Amino acid sequence: MTRLFNLDFQLLFDSGLLAISVFVLFLLMSKLLFNPARKLLTDRQNKIREDLASAAGDKEDAEKLRIEYEEKLKNAEKETEAILSEARQKALKNEAKIIADAKEEAAAIIARANEEAALEKKRVADEMKQEMISVAAMMAGKVVAANINTEIQADLVDDTLKEMGEATWQN
After folding, report:
1. pTM above 0.85, yes or no
2. pLDDT in tens, 158-168
3. What is the tens place of the pLDDT at every residue in 105-123?
């Protein structure tokens, strides 16, 4: 028998058979174990990529929502300021109207008081005139009574009746 590198034939055959069985075992394991393991790893990598992409998308959505929320908050502040400004303007208008109404009412009250005071003054003046007339009449009556006798008095009554006329006495 020939020897290859000083190795016997049985050893070479066993080594070849072992190499073939390892190769077949490698193919079989590759088919049964390595490919599912690779598929599992690639599926896991794909899922991680999808999760990262989803997280990035969610982050972008969250950023958009945050910006939108800030805009709404700014708009709400502007609307609040506008509403408050409008309420202040209405309050100022109402205040001005109330003041104007109060001034008109006060002016009317003062005018009525002035009218009443003028009427009262006129009434008092008329009463004073009447009082003065009655006092003057009493004084004149006393002066005339002291100076006139019955003949002169009868003539005066007749003259007065003639001046007043008969129509006055008939009413």
Report:
1. no
2. 777 777 665 55
3. 999 999 999 999 999 999 9
Distance CA 49, CA 161 (A): 136
- Give CA separation, 77 vs 65, 89, 163, in Å: 18, 18, 94
HEC string of 38-53 equals HHHHHHHHHHHHHHHH
CA atoms within 13 A on the CB side of 18: 6
Amino acid type, 161: L
Residue 143: pLDDT above 50?
yes
Per-residue DSSP letter, 32: I
Cα gap 70→97, rounded to integer Å: 40
Phi, psi torsion values for 7, nearest 5 degrees: -110, 140
* Residues 12 and 4 sit within 8 Å (Cβ to Cβ): yes
User: What would the two tokens of residue 169 be?
Assistant: 């006495």
Helix (H, G, I), strand (E, B) or coil at 81: helix
